[in-house]
Amino acid sequence: MLKTAYKTDVGRVRSVNEDRVVVKDGVAGGTLAIVADGMGGHQAGDTASQITIELVERSLRNADAELDDEARKARLVEAIREANAKVFEVASGKDHYRGMGTTITAALADASRVLIGHIGDSRAYYINHESFAQITEDHTLVNELVKTGQLTPDEAAVHPRRNVITRALGTEADVDIDLAYVSWAPGDMLLLCSDGLSNLVPETELTRTVRGEGTLRDKVDRLVEYALNAGGDDNISVVLIQNVL
């Protein structure tokens, strides 16, 4: 059995929440969770993220629960590429949507494994009693600079261009999708979030809160509150999924 909790908040600075979250049980034999962080300004960003979560969820809703790992990967890739094509089509058709796009971090989870599909800088973390590990890789300018040794991780965390995305859904006719399978067991957890959380809440605090006392709802609320108290300069979205007996 899987337990879930999620929350999205506009933050303290933005007037519009361009993040979108969906969490649905009974999808492809498990639970589907998506965090999408839209970009492109008012109407454009929230349109991109809304189109994305609706199309991906609809595409996966009737997927066979008995799909093997490769077929499940193919189905998730197909769903994300359909959303990419639609967002790109809409962005190409109207001037005020031009250039819009969104991140997507999607998880298809059952009792034994989690499939992650990822584009952009929203994140997925895997947590158990021993480790707190970021599964996804940020598709950002500063991460590229860190990988090539031009910035340290500490420098990247405060770099003025840390929000520059190098890969997004909907900005090009086609897009590469990162995929990962993670095995998990009862007691393990998965955290999905937009950068409105990960940019403001240090990993030590993420770890302490997720492993701490309280329900999943309590933990989600605490994480959002921490980001708000740290400035809340972006929309904040958090999903927690726990594998339980």
Give a structural overview:
By secondary structure, the protein is an alpha+beta fold. The chain is built from 7 helices and 11 strands. It has helices spanning 44-61, 69-93, 141-147, 153-157, 195-198, 203-211, 216-229; strands at residues 2-9, 19-27, 30-39, 101-102, 104-109, 113-119, 123-127, 132-134, 178-183, 189-193, 236-243. Strands 2, 3, 4, 5, 6 and 9 form a 6-stranded antiparallel beta sheet that branches. The mean pLDDT is 94.
Calculate the terminal CA-CA distance, rounded to whole Å: 6 Å
Low-pLDDT residue spans: none
**Which range does the strand content fall in?**
25-35%
What percentage of residues falls in helices of 4 or more residues? 25-40%
Number of strands: 11
What sort of overall outline do the alpha carbons produce when their principal axes are compared? globular
Give the SSE map.
Elements: E1 2-9, E2 19-27, E3 30-39, H1 44-61, H2 69-93, E4 101-102, E5 104-109, E6 113-119, E7 123-127, E8 132-134, H3 141-147, H4 153-157, E9 178-183, E10 189-193, H5 195-198, H6 203-211, H7 216-229, E11 236-243
Antiparallel strand pairs: 1-11, 2-3, 3-4, 3-5, 5-6, 6-9, 7-8, 7-10, 10-11
Helix pairs in contact: 1-2, 6-7
